[in-house]
Amino acid sequence: SDARLGRITKAETTCNYCAVGCRFELYGKDGDVLGVRPADPEATPANDFSTCVKGKFGYDFVNSDDRLTTPLIRDGDGFREASWAEAYDRIYEELTRIQTQHGTDSVAVTSSSKCTNEENFLNQKFARQVLKTPHVDNCARLCHSSTVAGLQQTVGYGAMTNRINEDIGETECYLITGSNTTEGHPVLATRIKQNVRDGADLFVFEPRKIGLAEHATQYTRTKPGSDIAWLNGMVRHIIDQDLHDTEFIDSRTKHFDELKEKVEPFTPERVEELAGVPPEELKRAAETIATADTCIFGWAMGMTQHAHGTRNVLAITNLALVTGHLGKPGAGLSPFRGQNNVQGGGGDMGPAPHNLPGYQDPTDDEIADKFAEVWGERPPQEVGLRLPEQYEAMLRGDIRGMYIMGENPVLSEPDISEAEEALEELEFLAVQDIFLTETAEYADVVLPAASNAEKYGTFTNTERRVQLVRPAIDPPGIARTDLEILCDLADRFGYEWDYDSAADVMDEIAELVPIYGGISYDRLESTPEGIQWPCTDADDPGTPYLYEERFNFDDGLARFVPADYAGPAELPDEEYPLMLTSGRVLYHWHTGTMTRRTQVSMDHVPESFVTIHPRMADQLGVEDGEYVRVVSRRGDIVVKAEVNDVADPGVVFIPMHFAEGAINELTQHELDPVSYIPEYKVSSVRIEPLGPD
Ligand code: SF4
Q1: Taking the chain, what is the end-to-end CA distance rounded to the nearest angstrom?
Q2: Same domain, 264 and 318
Q3: ipTM over 0.90
Q4: CATH of the domain at 645
Q5: Is residue 184 within 8 Å of 588, Cβ to Cβ?
Q6: Any idea what DSSP says for residue 347?
Q7: What's the rounded mean pLDDT across residues 94-106?
Q8: Residue to probe by mutation, ligand 1, list 14, 16, 22, most atoms within 8 Å of CB
Q9: Is residue 562 part of a domain?
């Protein structure tokens, strides 16, 4: 009936899982999400009509009975319900007490790449302006911080250089490495597969024979953690064969001679020894990439989550520069970012200890003064602690209070027992989230937040495209949006934040962040395809691909930064003879907070598992489907064995999405010295069979 239809609400919005940034219409009714339908093709630049299974069916979590509906305050071992006023008072009193006793630097704030740009901007503003602490960070530290650090050194911007549709979808050639694209970025993988069907070459270099390898011109199995060797080897072979783009190198780059000298030792034979890559496969890939008119270099966390993650990124960037595959349509460096808004919220908005919004340097006086003009005072000018350092500081008692927005470090930090110990050491923890997560269980105050189906804002997808997010329903109970909560809290601390809406926050972002200088809600409402940064003023249409004429340095030149070889920090030995690696599965998402509450995901992949090669399974006496104990130097977990030959006999794999059988009980704390990203991708383990029962 009309009355029934009248209650159905609809919003054109952006997917809240991965950073492909698919857009669709979200339908709601009486506080529940009903479903998803394709949106106007003009408004869906990354996906047209498609979505993956998570985008299409992954909304159950919004309707879940587990949603937090009211603030909670710790009461013995549990929680009691509280009013907003009481919860805010407690946060104000406790953080103020800790800062008075131990200094402003004794508290830290965590932001969330799940939340909007506006909420992340306010989160770091809350840390810097209200709490006056430089210790603010977010989960980008754990996924692509090494990408950002590597690209900033070589080409300037820490972001994908090109577009999804027009460039990734149209290139002549791909090198994909460290990305299980069909599972992690499904709609983007579909673009690649379509283009390969139309004749593009696809080279996949991976320790595991992932889904995309089935479509590849050549799949090459590599040893985990050996990427610098084969990337340097490709550069060496290209120079050796005189296939490098001398015109591009001469006119647009510097330090080529240093690179040439550093890659010289990486002969095909040495690469084979270090990385297990057969010489003919290395040469074929290198020659095809060098002679193609255009090539896309795609990667994800298989490249970044290493103790030498930044060097991996330098190595792949050197390959793109040597072959001149930058600054033109169909070419580019394509880090596939993870979370829906990790590019914008986790990077561009500056909730990071060494970057103000827009990657601006907090130690620079001119920049600090620019912020002071708008905020009334300079933000703290020292570089704060990175996320893993914050957990160390918590264990030492240097950080005693913490405010976490939408992040689940109990599952996402490497070495879970250490993260739990650190949270236990805190005098006060406030968590703002949509569920009582494994981390919120440690909190003193829990604040109920709105999901992305319940708020206005913007996300910036992996191709730097700023897109609107709109509410289809209201938040449950008395939950509030993260934006409202942060404004309320600032007010409780005596700061008048005069924002009527997310649009007002974007106006402040545009004022302070040059790459967002021309972005406003008025423009976004009338630009269905969104706007790609840099967009410096109201007349700037945005930048579909970067570096057409200049790299982002004063002299406009890209820098070759040679990458010295480093292998995994922990190698197999007698006690721990297997290499463990990790990754995503299509049906789940990150720490599983959302997908473990989504029917379709649990129907397909209900629990964690470890993949074991048939030969290794035989040797261990393990049958497919039996439970096994996986043990590392950090801890042990029990998971189901899945026997298959996706990886070598010496390599096992566990997905990262589960609380039971959580892989980070096993992973190690070794950090990349530049980006401080932990080495999640390679740890040594042993497997103990538990028998058929
Ligand atoms: Fe959402 Fe990513 Fe799937 Fe698109 S590909 S629907 S953005 S999870």
Answers
A1: 55
A2: yes
A3: yes
A4: 2.40.40.20
A5: no
A6: I
A7: 98
A8: 22
A9: no
Residue closest via CA to ligand 1's atom 1 equals 55
Q: Domain containing 512: what range?
A: 89-142+340-466+477-532
Residue 444 within a domain: yes
Residues 252 and 398 in one domain: no
Write the pLDDT tens digit of every residue in 160-207. Answer: 999 999 999 999 999 999 988 888 899 899 999 999 999 999 999 999
Question: Structure tokens of 69?
Answer: 């509906």
- My answer on whether 176 and 230 are in the same domain is yes
Find the 26 Cα to ligand 1 centroid distance in Å: 14
CA of residue 17 to ligand 1 center, whole Å: 6
Whole-model pTM? 0.93
Please choose from 36, 48, 53, 54 the residue to mutate so as to test ligand 1's pocket, defined by most ligand atoms within 8 A of CB: 54
Residue 569 one-letter amino acid = A
Tell me whether residue 625 is in a domain: yes
Taking CA atoms, 371 is separated from 46, 367, 389, 650, in Å, by 34, 6, 26, 53
Length of the chain: 693
Q: Give the pLDDT band (50/70/90) at residue 54.
A: confident
Q: What is the CATH number of the domain that holds 348?
A: 3.40.50.740
Least confident of 177-181, 215-219, 473-477: 177-181
Pair 319, 396 in one domain: no
CA 669 to chain centre: 18
Pair (450, 510) in one structural domain = yes
Q: Pocket of ligand 1, candidates 25, 47, 463: which has the most ligand atoms within 8 Å of its Cβ, to mutate?
A: 47
